[in-house]
Amino acid sequence: MLPHKLTLCLLLFVIPSSIVAQQRKAPAGGRLAIVVDERLAALRATPQLNGRLVRRLSRGRLLAVRAMKTSADGISFLLVNVSSRTHGWIQREAVVSPFRTGDEQRLLTLIEHSEGFDRIARARIFLDHFQHSRLRSSVLLLLGDTAEELAAKLSADAARRLKQEYGDAPEFSYFLNYTGLDRYNRQGITFVFVQSTKCFHYDGAAWRELIHRYPNSQAAAEAKIKLDLVYSQVRKN
């Protein structure tokens, strides 16, 4: 929690991460896999890159893996159920599975090479589906750092778009209803809003979880520094 004396100068809106994790139910018929790279997520009728396109799958989509096959050009494809009525073949690299050795490291690498909201969304997938991974502390730190970096951009965007557009409602309510926050809200990422500076800051949930679960780690030490920095910035106002 943020210090009690700050509650008069900021507002906090929260959506538990468990809600995000429960948004979809995995289909039956095989082992769980999750789409993490939508650039490769073409569901095809046959295990070939030029196979007939059935549909494009979005990042975060839950699948059931039934089989695997390697094409003549060396590309591995998974036969997956998308729903009770839809199935097809998808390139192996488009998905990760908590049951497959090495996928947690592969997803972490993808997260590290992502930016902005893409990093947030992929980190959320990791935290939801690799809950006992030894790499979880690294992902929590990346998520928190990225959210705080994005808070500055969100503040500038909101101020520009909302300039001189206030009606009868309190000014802060326009900021907390800013549409640019919506997709972060759906990922369970929440921000505090400081009225005096009209700035958002990440609420620090990932950092706090990191400190609580891995108190002796180097990542936890870094998270404490980041939390203190955010608190000091808020206290100035």
From the N-terminal CA to the C-terminal CA, the straight-line distance is 18 Å
Helix content: 25-40%
Biggest sheet: strands side by side, in what order? Answer: 7-6-5-2-8
Order of helical and strand elements? EHEEEEEEEHHHHHEEHH
Radius of gyration from the CA trace?
20 Å
Morphology:
globular
Largest sheet: 5 strands, antiparallel
Say how many strands there are: 10
Mean pLDDT: 89
**How much of the sequence is in beta strands?**
15-25%
Q: What attributes does this structure have?
A:
globular, 237 residues, 8 helices, 5-stranded antiparallel sheet, disordered N terminus, alpha+beta, 3-stranded antiparallel sheet
Describe the protein.
- The chain has helices spanning 17-21, 103-112, 116-129, 136-162, 171-176, 182-186, 205-213, 218-235; strands spanning 10-12, 31-35, 42-44, 53-56, 62-70, 76-81, 87-91, 95-96, 191-194, 199-202.
- The protein is of the alpha+beta class.
- A hairpin with a 5-residue loop joins strand 5 and strand 6.
- The protein is globular and about 60 Å long.
Q: Helices and strands in order, then pairings?
A:
Elements: E1 10-12, H1 17-21, E2 31-35, E3 42-44, E4 53-56, E5 62-70, E6 76-81, E7 87-91, E8 95-96, H2 103-112, H3 116-129, H4 136-162, H5 171-176, H6 182-186, E9 191-194, E10 199-202, H7 205-213, H8 218-235
Antiparallel strand pairs: 1-9, 2-5, 2-8, 3-4, 5-6, 6-7, 9-10
Helix pairs in contact: 2-3, 3-4, 4-7, 4-8, 7-8
